[in-house]
Specification:
This protein is α/β, with parallel strands linked by helices. The protein is built from 13 helices and 19 strands. It has two domains: about 35-300 and about 360-410, no CATH class; about 315-350, no CATH class. The chain is globular. It binds zinc ion (ZN).
Length: about 450
């Protein structure tokens, strides 16, 4: 707070500030947050193979809705910036995330811990990336399209990051949570006896200008973006939800932050009407939070990013892989072929994977935990239980969508999210039993390291 009464100390501060400016030193930043947001279209400009479903037999045939890279930059009153990028893509692999992060650091000094790359997991977007997943057996022409798209995509993500940082301006940052009943635990579709945990929380981060007008809003939810499955490019229900929010709040940009959606689907699904309906439901839930009482988010913003080695089970032998080359399932044959190539290239299959864990702590008011991979809901529920349901936001699908990330329970139950899906990601086999504990412990470690000490009493 400033005091208007002239005072010797005030004069001294004015003098010092003037002297600092005269010598070219940075002037002290104004207290409070600055925020900036940018929205860049990443819609493919030519027919391209679509991501997510292995059953598609031809490239895209049109565009129902544009896809976006949306970046939100936040700067605390110590002048340190961080950027979260929300992408209408099915995934992002380590190689592409690393390329974006390295360039963002070179251009803007943004360190790896201060950049989150989160994907909506839309199954109506393009195949993209520097490494094409084994799920897509593309011919040379189709690969060239994906390569062209990826080159442009990386440039556009960086454009969004730069744009958001260039827009930094004083802002109020607020947090609140609602609920929306979109997610159904999809493992129960195949096995009715499974438990059906879901996370139906709707975390909302609102960015307002000093006068209170909404400039940006980040909205989280945990369910697969699989309501649509045709050949028209679109953002699926999260894309429709964000469009709905932006329409209701002219001048504001809405970012979808995917949660722990691995074992959740919006059900029923498969029609545009249902996809738009789920979009309306999420938008209405976010609107309720925005109109209600939200909690001011305080700084400083403390960030940490690390990879932790998560184990695979003992990999298949060369003899086992040779046998799988005769399997009736083409995906199993293709997977075996790729693993054999990997053995020939590197001498052995990997026994662990460097799994990305990231924590952003906003003072003592909010923890954003971002995890790699398609994370099952057990992580979200457990981490909120351990770190506080009211102020913890858990987002999977961040920084490297390397595979499904089962909890110990899902791993033991087996099925698609428990291990069968690993072939589509080209991994040697299911994760080892310690995967959940290793990730949860690394989160606790990073939370400890980013915790701001309580003010002395
Ligand atoms: Zn998925």
């Amino acid at each position: 707070m400033f005091v208007n009464t002239p005072h010797p100390l005030t004069c001294l501060l004015v003098f010092l500030a003037g002297a600092a400016a005269a010598f070219g030193a940075a002037t002290p930043p104004a207290p409070g947050w600055k925020a900036g947001v940018a929205k860049v279209v990443i819609t493919p400009t030519e027919p391209i193979w679509m991501a997510g479903f292995g059953s598609r037999t031809k490239p895209s045939e049109g565009v129902r809705q544009d896809l976006y890279a949306k970046a939100l930059a936040l700067q605390d009153d110590a002048g340190r910036s961080a950027v979260i990028v929300a992408l209408d893509l099915v995934g992002i692999e380590r190689e592409m995330a690393d390329a974006v992060a390295a360039e963002a650091q070179r251009r803007h000094g943004l360190t790896r811990d201060r950049l989150v790359l989160n994907v909506s997991h839309t199954h109506s977007g393009p195949v993209a990336g520097l490494v094409v997943m084994p799920l897509y057996d593309l011919n040379a022409e189709q690969r060239a399209v994906v390569q062209r798209y990826t080159t442009g995509l990386i440039a556009r993500i960086l454009e969004a990051i730069g744009g958001a940082l260039a827009q930094l301006a004083p802002a109020r940052v607020e947090f609140g949570q609602g609920l929306a009943g979109i997610a159904v635990n999809r493992r129960r579709v195949r096995n009715r006896s499974y438990p059906g945990p879901v996370d139906q929380d709707v975390p909302v981060l609102a960015i307002r200008d000093p006068a209170g007008a909404l400039r940006a809003v980040a909205v989280g939810y945990s369910a697969h973006a699989t309501a649509m499955s045709d050949y028209q490019i679109n953002g699926d229900w999260p894309g429709f939800a964000m469009a709905e929010i932006e329409q209701a709040n002219p001048g504001a940009t809405a970012l979808f932050v995917n949660g722990c959606s691995a074992d959740a689907n919006p059900l029923p699904r498969r029609t545009e009407e249902l996809a738009r309906g789920y979009g309306k439901i999420l938008a209405a839930a976010a609107d309720e939070v925005l109109r209600g009482r939200m909690t001011p988010v305080t700084g400083p913003l403390q960030t940490a990013f690390e990879t932790v080695e998560v184990p695979f089970r003992t990999p298949p032998t060369r003899a086992e892989l040779d046998q799988r080359l005769q399997d009736r399932n083409p995906f199993i044959r293709l997977h075996a072929k790729r693993l054999i190539e990997e053995i020939e290239r590197k001498g052995a299959l990997p026994t662990t994977y460097p799994y990305p864990v990231q924590v952003w702590q906003f003072g003592r008011s909010l923890k954003l935990i971002t995890l790699g991979g398609e994370v099952v809901v057990d992580y979200s529920l457990r981490l909120k239980q351990e770190h506080g349901f009211d102020h913890t936001w858990v987002a999977g699908y961040s920084n490297d969508v390397l595979a499904y990330i089962p909890s110990r329970r899902v791993l033991m139950e087996g099925g698609y999210e428990g291990g069968e899906s690993m072939i589509y990601f080209g991994r040697p086999g299911p994760f080892g039993a310690a995967v959940e504990e290793i990730i949860v412990e690394k989160v606790a470690d990073l939370v400890r390291r980013t915790t701001v000490a309580a003010p002395a009493k």
